[in-house]
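Checked the freezer inventory, then went back to the computational side. Two predictions to log before the end of the day. The first one is the construct we discussed on Monday; recording sequence and tokens without edits.
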Amino acid sequence: MKTILNVIWLILCGFWMFLGYVAAGVLLCITIIGIPFGLAAFRIGVYALWPFGYTVVDRRDSGSPSFIGNILWLILAGWWLALGHIFTGIALCVTIIGIPLGIANFKLIPVSLMPFGKEIVRSDQPFATR
């Protein structure tokens, strides 16, 4: 079932959200200071391309650098990427078939707002606890 959802997701909004994350990553990687933010954008972009079967878990070893990075990310790119997820999630929830995809889009909003201190893991792995 997750393969079917991933293919439908890829066609309807996954590819476009991936392009948004890649564009943000390229813009952020222009400067040396922005490289960690660009890498985070690429990491989330791959997750946004194929989200079903993966989940986001909090890392216990992240500290104040992740907090500061999340604040900077929110200002630089997070707000705009989260708006993209909100708009596409609302558009997908208009149809009955699109409701699971819209809900998945809404689940991507927290990681698009604050990606540092989080890890993307397979849903079937035992350490992927919520």
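The second is the one RB wanted added to the comparison set:
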Amino acid sequence: MDLLLWGVLPYVSIALLVAGTLWRARYDKFGWTTHSSQLHESRLLRIGSPLFHFGMLFVVVGHVVGLLIPMSWTDALGLSDHAYHLLAVSTGAVAGVAAAVGIAILVYRRFTVPAVRRATLKSDHLMYTFLLGAMVLGLTATVLNSTGQTGGYNYREGVSVWFRGLFTLQPDHQLMAGAPLAFRLHVLFAFTLFALIPYSRLVHIFSAPLRYLFRPFVVYRKRDPELLANRQPERGWERVS
């Protein structure tokens, strides 16, 4: 069972993620959308959406640093394990709480605003379940580990080593089998969420509007009321192209 959960399931999740994304990009271009409900309600959306998206951005960056950078690298930089832990917990807690508050507002909005509730898809219920589950379990694992409830477990020597082993096709499933329950559940929910990305509105994370940052400026010209008042209407064939 440990081999299936920590040695096989991650690759199944990644395969579903890649295959589903390629399929939607090829055959479901018009369905590749966030299914925005801003027209139905915008007040709560203006609060919850930035909190969730920016909070999740920093959460993801924190996970990348914590999982992909070995302890030997931070030790070589002179950053002690205690200092690293304080930095990770302080910044991660702020980002995690912001993301949790944001998603709570968005879920509240989705189920209390009638128009938004009617626009909710069946896949949204499944997506929100695993998204909320992964977030709650991640915060729970952080709190338990920080308060010493996990017996001094160091995820950088367990979960991180196992995760990096996935890229070399040599994951040590025993490392995850020995991790505290909160960490194992958090990872299971996370990989299940990865598999659901192409089949839900979360697919829009692959459509970041980066070209918007480099687009040319749009020139707007103010209309002169006096000029418009004296302007004679032109017939179609008299217009200059």
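For RB: The mean pLDDT is 86. The radius of gyration is 24 Å. Let me know if you want it refolded.
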